[in-house]
Amino acid sequence: MSMDRLLEGIAAKQNPTVAGLDPKLAYIPEYILKESFEKYGETLEGAADALLVYNKGLIDALCDIVPAVKPQAAYYEMYGWQGVKALAETIAYARAKGMYVITDGKRNDIGATMQAYASAHLGVTEVCGKNLSAFDADALTVNGYLGSDGIEPLLSVCAKGDKGIFVLVKTSNPSSGELQDRQLATGETVYQLMGGNCETWGEKLPGKFGYSGVGAVVGATYPAQLDELRKTLPHTFFLVPGYGAQGGGADDVAPAFDDNGLGAVVNSSRGILCAWQKEKCDGGEYAAAARREAIRMRDEIVARIGEIKLPN
Ligand SMILES: O=C(O)c1cc(=O)[nH]c(=O)n1[C@@H]1O[C@H](COP(=O)(O)O)[C@@H](O)[C@H]1O
């Protein structure tokens, strides 16, 4: 149920990481851009085609060693409906290759509108009595700061379709403390309260390995909070962004894991996408360079946490 498929993928591949698919034209090798622009002109359609070709090359190179991808919707929306089509095709391609797909949309709204987001990204949309899948990701990042009526619609969609959500709790950005670290009259911080909400919401989506379908986003840039939240949120699986380009390393993310080497999946986007540029290798090697970086990241983290075991 819920997050179990992600945990099974992590254990099978002995790799607790997710590759962030946040593509920009500046990261895409010249030969891909040239072909897409020749086909569709220097248009949004040409750019979106290049994104998709680039993503497919990455997915092909990573799918046997990395359990999940996280496309961030903004990088597709910036190319209009053509970009959004590339997002949908990226999700379908990655799922067909056996990867768990977390759409990073950080969505939230009031209940009725949230229901529409839930249908769009995780559930089905009814058309003339038929239930059709729109984006059909495995999980979605969401903003819980509108309150529980913005989360409830997701829980029923997740229960029906074996899907999960990751709720923003303590985000990786430098200013996250402006709101999230504020202390409430009860003495707890706002992020602690939100973390507690994840445990409560997760009771509706229990998982067979102890982690529910309601995960939490906690940044690699805040290792002390990762440590604290791992201890206080035993049923909440963490999505940990901030490794690599934002400065987080293996030592920072290690506290996010439990004694079985489970408990978190660590994201790297630019670190993987731009590996070929960092290595200064030929564009034709971009996918191989991404794979090398994914292996380096996996090995660095697994060396800290040990073997990953699924509890019985
Ligand atoms: O929800 C997220 O994924 C997220 C939450 C957060 O607190 N910080 C954060 O960086 N992210 C996302 O994680 C990715 C980080 O990208 P890199 O810094 O390039 O690895 C981006 O897609 C961000 O939008």
Describe this structure in words.
Keywords: Decarboxylase, Lyase, Pyrimidine biosynthesis. Belongs to the OMP decarboxylase family. Type 2 subfamily. It holds the Pfam family OMPdecase. InterPro entries: Aldolase_TIM, OMPdecase_AS, OMPdecase_type-2, OMPdeCOase_dom, RibuloseP-bd_barrel. Its EC number is 4.1.1.23. The protein contains 14 helices and 10 strands. The chain has a single domain, classed as TIM Barrel (Alpha-Beta Barrel). The longest helix has 20 residues, at 286-305. Helices cover 45% and strands 16% of the residues. It starts with a helix and ends in a 7-residue tail after the last helix. The relative contact order is 0.15. The mean pLDDT is 97. Helix 3 (44-62) runs parallel beside helix 5 (80-96). The strands form 2 sheets. Strands 1-2-3-6-7-8-9-10 form an 8-stranded parallel beta barrel, surrounded by 8 helices. A hairpin with a 2-residue loop joins strand 4 (124-127) and strand 5. It is α/β, with parallel strands linked by helices. The site of orotidine-5'-monophosphate has 21 residues, from strand 3, strand 10 and helix 12.
- Mind telling me which CATH architecture this is? Alpha-Beta Barrel
Q: Structural class of the helix and strand makeup?
A: alpha/beta
> What do the pLDDT scores average to?
97
Oligomer: single chain
What's the short version?
The protein has 312 residues and is of the alpha/beta class.
List the helices and strands and how they pair.
Blueprint: H1 4-13, E1 17-21, H2 30-40, H3 44-62, E2 68-71, H4 74-77, H5 80-96, E3 100-107, H6 111-121, E4 124-127, E5 130-133, E6 139-142, H7 152-161, E7 164-170, H8 177-180, H9 190-202, E8 214-218, H10 223-232, E9 238-240, H11 250-253, E10 264-268, H12 270-273, H13 275-278, H14 286-305
Parallel strand pairs: 1-2, 1-10, 2-3, 3-6, 6-7, 7-8, 8-9, 9-10
Antiparallel strand pairs: 4-5
The structure holds orotidine-5'-monophosphate.
